[in-house]
Design a protein that fits this description.
The protein is an alpha/beta fold. It is built from 13 helices and 15 strands.
């Protein structure tokens, strides 16, 4: 079934990102997502994405003039787009998340505030983003706030081993001496502690997914991910009554610093309480950041996109908080909030770029 867009435009194809990939084809006012292809970790998955895209073209009789893709140059989907034989239009990851949700509601041309929370997306200067507040108006996208920076010891390995993110939090709190004792069962604990002690040695991220990993590991819920999102999901399952910790966050310029609530979590022995406080504090902190931006710009529509909004307490809590201050939250409906819907936002972004050139 097609996703009905708010307006028409040239035929455009998109390939999504790297995880949970599906292609998308926009023709007229209809956008068609391909069947789920999945993660592009193997050449056969890339071939399946290519086949799915060509099948959409055959089914619809569309004549795409461009192919949109993630801005990350090393994604297999980017390389596939580059050899597809059409003009390539790169789209910033979180801009695509925002427009995917907006498009489902016919609001892709509206002035929006976007909350885009996920595990990773390449930022404007090649940073690791993932906890973003954006001001969006069509093809224009400006970062106006973000979750605080956390070190990612071991890079991608930190996404598989949440205890590393918890160690980064302890280091940021000035409690590096606790890393070895808290994570005594991890053979790399001493190495990670040493890495975190050298300024600039570890890359940093604003990823909401990594903040969730850190909270899950600090509270003892999960030290490692058995599959993607495992620790965060187990942590989410404990949340039954979100409560914001007074003084649980602070604003430092553009950064929304959650270290105060993390310090509280590090001292509690009740994982359920930790989950409720983390969820409640993040909800309140994000709602406050959006309120501040809405007062500046007059925007009243807020789109909630990215894989972290699969988290029900977070999604429902943020939506309720925004409604409570007179704003209109929009959430994903037919397309997934996570990267499975990314290509939808990419085709919309590419159309807006092409429109701006005419």
């Amino acid at each position: 079934a097609a996703i009905r867009l708010g307006s028409g435009g040239p035929d455009v194809l998109a390939f999504g990102g790297h995880l949970k990939v599906a292609a998308c084809l926009a023709t007229g006012r209809d956008a068609f997502l391909s069947p789920h292809v999945g993660d592009l970790d193997h050449p056969s998955a890339v071939a399946a994405l290519d086949s799915a895209a060509r099948h959409l073209i055959t089914l619809t009789g569309a004549k795409p003039v461009a192919v949109a893709h993630d801005r990350h140059p090393d994604f297999a989907s980017t390389r596939l787009a580059e050899r597809f034989g059409l003009r390539c239009i790169p789209v910033q990851h979180h801009h695509a998340h925002a427009l995917a949700v907006a498009a489902e509601h016919g609001a892709e041309r509206s002035k929006l505030i976007a909350l885009t929370l996920d595990g990773f997306g390449l930022g404007d200067r090649h940073e690791a983003w993932g906890g973003e507040v954006l001001a969006v108006e069509g093809a224009r996208c400006e970062r106006v706030a973000h979750l605080g920076l956390l070190a990612e010891p071991g890079g991608d390995k930190a996404a598989r081993e949440p205890w590393r993110m918890a160690a980064a939090v302890l280091a940021a709190l000035g409690r590096s001496d606790e890393i070895n004792s808290r994570f005594a069962g991890e053979t790399a604990a001493a190495t990670v502690a040493a890495m975190l002690g050298v300024s600039g040695l570890c890359k940093t991220t604003t990823s909401a997914g990594r903040w969730f990993d850190a909270a899950a590991a600090l509270s003892g819920v999960a030290l490692k991910n058995r599959h993607e999102g495992d620790a965060a999901m187990r942590f989410e399952a404990l949340c039954d009554a979100p409560e914001a910790l007074p003084g649980g966050w602070r604003r430092d310029g553009m950064a929304i610093d959650l270290l105060p609530v993390m310090a509280d979590i590090a001292m509690t022995e009740d994982p359920r309480r930790a989950s409720n406080r983390f969820h409640g504090t993040m909800i309140a902190a994000l709602a406050e950041a959006v309120r501040m931006e809405a007062e500046k710009t007059g925007a009243s529509i807020v789109v909630l996109g990215g894989g972290c909004f699969v988290n029900r307490p977070l999604a429902e809590g943020v939506a309720a908080a925004l409604k409570g201050i007179g704003l209109r939250p929009l959430m994903a409906r037919d397309a997934p909030a996570n990267d499975g819907g990314l290509a939808l936002g990419q085709v919309v972004a590419a159309r807006l770029v092409l429109e701006g050139e005419n």
